[in-house]
Design a protein that fits this description.
The protein is mainly α and 141 residues long. It has helices at 2-17, 19-22, 27-50, 58-84, 89-122, 127-137.
Length: 141
C-alpha cells in the first residue's frame, strides 16, 4: 500500500516538474513549485498514515480531506501567483506560508480532537453517559 502511495506521489511530482519545460521560469514559479512539492509530500504522508486499513477512526478522514484541500489551495494560488506575481518573490512566499500556516493549524486541531475523542471512547462510561446511550436507543422508535 505504501509503495503505491509513494509511486503515485512521485508521478505527481514528475508531472508538476514537466512544467519547467513548458512555462517560463520566474521566481514565483520556483516558490510555487517548492510549495507544491511540499503539499504533495504532506498528502503522501497523510495517506500513508490515515489511509485505508491503517486507521478506522472516522475523524482521521478529516485529515485526508484537509490535506487534499491544502493541495488544491496551493495549486490554485500557484496559478494565480504565476499570473499576477510573476516576479514578486516576497508576496508569493508570504502568501504560501500563510496558506501552509492556516492548513497546519486546522490539521493540528483535527489531530488534537481525534486524540481527545479516542481518549473519551476508551474511558469507562459514567452514569450520565450510560443513561444517554439508553435514551438514544429508543429515540427513533
Amino acid at each position: 500500500m505504501k509503495n503505491r502511495i509513494i509511486l503515485r506521489g512521485l508521478i505527481a511530482i514528475g508531472l508538476i516538474s514537466l512544467l519547467f519545460f513548458i512555462l517560463p521560469i520566474t521566481p514565483a514559479f520556483i516558490i510555487s513549485y517548492i510549495f507544491t512539492i511540499i503539499a504533495i509530500v504532506i498528502l503522501m504522508r497523510t495517506f500513508a498514515t490515515f489511509g485505508k486499513g491503517n486507521n478506522g477512526v472516522p475523524q482521521s478522514y478529516a485529515s485526508i480531506y484537509i490535506t487534499c484541500g491544502y493541495l488544491v489551495a496551493v495549486l490554485s494560488f500557484s496559478l494565480l501567483a504565476y499570473i499576477l506575481f510573476s516576479y514578486n518573490i516576497l508576496w508569493t512566499t508570504i502568501i504560501h506560508i500563510a496558506i501552509l500556516g492556516v492548513f497546519g493549524i486546522v490539521f493540528l486541531t483535527i489531530g488534537a480532537g481525534n486524540d481527545y475523542i479516542s481518549k473519551l471512547d476508551n474511558q469507562e462510561p459514567t452514569e450520565e453517559r450510560k443513561k444517554f446511550v439508553e435514551e438514544k436507543k429508543n429515540y427513533w422508535k
